[in-house]
């Protein structure tokens, strides 16, 4: 079997990732709303999006880092966005558009290493690229282009921290736990250090 072919296990696993994270994404919207409502009276509502973005970025790196296949990040993140929309998300079809962009941002990070390196370095690169790509998207989608440079720097740093915690650290340790469980093919998904 070619290393580029997807096995039935890969397809099932990415579907499970999409459904699981789709539910997480949908539920996290309530957390976002609470945080945005709390920050608004202080004039900090712009930070709600960036502080809470991390959980919405997890499906892509989880799929890519576990399955180690080109395209897994885009597919995993997009499936999560579709499922979030199906559950009745407040953003509707824009979930899919945002998920595609988030998946692409993650995918770029793994592609930098030619899909050959699956460790903290490639995962860190995916965190950086997804942060940059989604921030550029928000310059247009959410009107960030009209913000002052100081606010933009603050928002970017906040987004990077949120992304690093959720799409980096949590994904890394979750992958280690899944690999240790024996669910995955040990020669492809060994525990990384």
TrEMBL record:
Keywords of the record: Membrane, Transmembrane, Transmembrane helix
TM region positions: 12-29, 93-115, 122-140, 146-173
Q: So which residues are the signal peptide here?
A: none
* Source taxon at top rank: Bacteria
Question: What is the name of this protein?
Answer: ABC transporter permease
